[in-house]
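Notes continue from the previous slide.

Worked example: a multi-chain complex. Inputs as given:
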Amino acid sequence: MRRYNLCVIGAGPAGLSAAIEAAKTGMSVGVFDENQKAGGQLFKQIHKFFGSREHKASIRGFNIGYELLTEAKALGVDVHLDSVVIGIYDPLRITVCEDGCITNYAADNIVVATGASENTVPFEGWDLPGVLGAGAAQTMMNLHGVQPGEKIIMLGSGNVGLVVGFQLLQAGCKVEAVVDALPHVGGYGVHASKLARTGVPFYLSHSIVRAEGEDHVTGVVIAQVDSHFNFLPGTEKHFDADTVCLAVGLNPMSQLTRMAGCEMVNKGGLVPKTDKYGATTIDGLFAAGDVAGIEEASSAMITGRIAALSAAKRSGFIDEKQFEDGYNENHSSILKLRKGMFAPENRGRMDITKTDEGYPLSVSLLENGFVSDTEIRTFPGVISEEGVHPVIECTQNIPCDPCQEACRVGCIKIGEGITSLPQVNADKKCVNCGRCVAVCPGQAIFLVDEETENGFGTVTMPYEFLPLPQKGDIGVGLDRAGKAVCTAEVTDVKSRKEFDHTNLLTVKVPSEMVMKVRFYKGKEAAKHE
Amino acid sequence: MSEIMDRSKDIGEFIPRPDDDVIICRCEEITRGEIRKAVHMGLWTMTEVKRYLRCGMGLCQGQTCSKTVKVIIASELGIKPQELEECTARPPVRPIELGIFGNEVEKL
Amino acid sequence: MSSIKADVIVIGSGIVGSSAAYNLAKEGRKVIVLEKDMIGNGGSCRNGGGVRISGRDPREIQLCAYAAKNIWPQLSDELGIDVEYKKSGYLFMGYEPAHKKMMQERVEVCSKYNIKMKIIEGDDIYKRFPYVSKHVTVAGWTQDDGVANPLKATLGYYIAARRLGVRYITGEEAVKIIKIKDDARQVLCASGNIYEGDAIIAAPGYFGKDLLKTVGIDVPMQKKLNEIIVTERAPKMFDHMIGGASGHYGQQTENGSFVFGSGSGRELFLFDKNEKTSTEQSPSFICNTLGIDIPFIKELKVVRTWSGWLDRCIDLVPVIGKIEEVPGLYVSIGSSGHGFGPGPAVGRVLSELACGRQSPVDISKLHYDRFDYVYKQDRYKEATVGGSFG
Amino acid sequence: MRIKEHPIIDSYDKGALIEFTCDGKKLNGYEGEPVAAALEANGIKIHRYTRKRHSPRGIFCAIGRCTDCVMEVDGKPNVRTCVTPLKAGMTVKTQYGDGQREAEKE
């Protein structure tokens, strides 16, 4: 029987990272994935990642996918695509369906990195064509270049719902509403703000009553829910929509580990019980990434490396010292990500009212998806001074720090740990380079000049839509809530390779609007609203 | 090992709900009401409900509905979903043509 | 600790245990069923669903015929649940002269009990059963055999028995049968609970071997892992039971899935397997042999494979009946992989015996005492694999 | 609808433009893309009608897990269109219930 030192199941961020780390120690590695392409969810992730440089922050997911795949191949990893692992058997054997036959492979170690699939929520009409997973919509548009629909209702305001919602806009679809039964936006506030400022309304404490339609979705009725998620009569609201995206959480695809006989625990779905090294209760069987507990892709890459190091140590490819060093490095890296209000232990908490630094959280952000005009001024990234300066509307403790490094003149400081709120240092003079605006994965940084000429100022914002406005265009400025508040003239458009498709749009607006205007629409586009 | 359950314990009458007609298992087209009724007939585990109603026995093998089915059964029984044991996970994880499944080849 | 009392304590909630409980409850007896796992999670819910008289050992054929004729046809009406029983026949396929010889022996046994089994050869096979491959050269056909849905039947008995007031306690593992003076009266469970009745019916599957030992009853049996594959649904192709001399057996169920099991020959060496895992070899083996006999099945997708322990008795027929040396104890164990079809009858037999009446069908050859002295053994020979299951 | 221009994705990794049929109608798609993507691009949302309720179903998970998007592809029913690559000349049909195999359609 063909034997690998390490068989990795799943070629997503965790699996590929595990394969690379293991191959570096000299292990023979086979990676098996049921898809035709490696990369797992990475190739659907067209947004810039959060985190720090070591977590590949500010790099778009699909580019991380290419990097990992290239590295794995260079290290001689066998990547078996179109290969379904149908079972894990004792003693450490996998059965694979590939090339029209069944083959058994023996493994000295196995890393299961099968990821997660989407949760569902049943309501009347949820089986109609047009109701689909948010991840499914993402697959259709980002991998296959096909719009999943035209008018979309997004159910779920977690990061998946928010990120996919924004990507639907980028793909040219219209997002009619983001709906969530919980009273608070579940995902990062910066993701919500990106949607809200384009005019997407948020309906918190609401859920879908039914999807209407004969052959496919033609309308959606939502209604308010009480704290027990029961509908409140009389609050129904109808939308014309042809698509409903379900973004109601992820479920670890842990069947293989269950099949293998691993002890399972409940962590938002059944996951194999693992120790801090990724080892399950079966000797030689490890789990990494979402299958061991839902987190971001950045964390998945690290848990993949840790599992691979554990396997390498177990099989004598590295010694205790090498293992300790590798583990410590990865462990400290993941700890940085697992801090702040979105840390795994804070998941689902509704009672956090202040940032780690003690700033009151924006209530409007949690309830409406955007920070109010008065609230925004209370955060350390928002200052008012003469001349151009960054305004950082990053108001929650999320693990991310590329802005600090992007600023070469030291205007931006992030305190202890990467989850601290960025602060703008007024003593250092902003040089209007725009790097911070382009690099921020949350698109939460703006360059504001309160007065450039009599009664007018400028706002420079990140812009990732088509068609790209041109210098001299006159359109409307939208506030954080997506409401048109004034006429805006495009005075500059910067598109640089280093900005990686994040264009910098500078608009001229009345001075009293510079702390309000956060998005721009051409006159035509604004008229269609 | 399963928890001790006295199947004669009173879990109350079956009370119809307006959403009883909503499909839960998309493959086998089993509704919320059917699942709730099955619990009141004495089927108190994921496996028993599945075997009796076929929810989770279709082409996707419960990968879409099992979490929801679990919540429905637990709510009828008045327990937490985590207290219910999952149905056994069994190969093949994806549907595989029998001709391919029977074509075992050794690769060296 | 005081004991929990009923008229009869039944150990095991499989088709036999529940059938017994149901029949007793119908007579107004107070019954408690103790189940170590969940309802019917042993062989009763894990089999090919055959209700077969042909191909049976002569010692149990009457029991099987009794079930097929007197219970199965009315069972859906009786329980108020469609158990999907059909007297749709049984096709047994062979490939070589030795198989024909085996079939002739079966025909002989059947004819003694007035069951018509006939042998079909060559083109007649393909004319009547167009989906059978040319690899099959000889076939046996028994019209009186049939199929049912094991899940619906096993759970149906449970639902009906529970409706009649039978108290089922699941997760309650019987570990010891306690005698009071000469009679089996109490059952001690792992939980510490003690149940007491005038009679104890034990239908515990393989794991009851140790339980019976607590009153000195030792059935020579071992556990054996059997595996089954299930396909996607397909339009109805045939509604009868099928078996092949290469070892497979199964049916196309009412809902359209094909459910087929087989042995790969390694089963007896898999006794240390975790029950949750099927093996990497057997499903592939089943698919392979099945695909040879019924080629169109190769196009269908397998959606599930599963496994289960069967309680394989040394002479491949069960021990059923009253244990005279332990009064009050009635047993069904060791059905060796073909206990589903006769299951409802076995339950009825045990309920009759527990009520102090005679068995409605001759079970004398299935007596526990048959192992006591070597000269009593009718035959301890290894049966051919084909047709032994289902 | 196909996305003609995308602000982030410069190009999609697509094969050659080829023809296939859906319920007898000639359609275009790119070789190697999932059948489901080609259908969605052609505005086809209904993949099958279920057995019991005869209700329409389409794409749901798009990763081959939920099996809701199955259709009859080249004579075989229950083919997961979201993970089945499109080939030139492919015959795709709306599936009714469990569908029919070519061999059964006499």
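Summary box: The radius of gyration of chain A is 24 Å. Residues 297-314 of chain A form the longest helix (18 residues).
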